[in-house]
Amino acid sequence: MRHSLRRGYAEATRHAQKDPLGAARHSGWSDGSPSFAGYHDRAAAFDEELNPLYGIGL
């Protein structure tokens, strides 16, 4: 359960367009954590401006 909460926090900060370093530090991730960065970046798949397939109706 803890894993999903930490992942959800990282993804939520991405959707809220918060500073990733500040968000990671606030939640106890180490600076440069590859796990936090991975979760944060995966959330970009749902960003309208970054996903070329967003909104095509699939």
Helix content: 40-55%
Computed over alpha carbons, the radius of gyration is: 12 Å
Main beta-sheet strand count, sense and barrel state: none
* Extended strand count: 0
Order of helices and strands: HHH
Structure commentary:
The chain has 58 residues and is an all-alpha fold. Helix 1 crosses helix 3. It has 3 helices and no strands. The longest helix has 14 residues, at 2-15. It is elongated. The model has no long low-confidence stretch (mean pLDDT 79).
In short:
With 58 residues, this protein is mostly helical.
Which key terms come to mind for this protein?
58 residues, single chain, 0% strand, 3 helices, mainly alpha
How are the SSEs ordered, and which strands pair?
Blueprint (H helix, E strand, L loop, with lengths): L1 H14 L4 H7 L7 H9 L16
Helix pairs in contact: 1-3
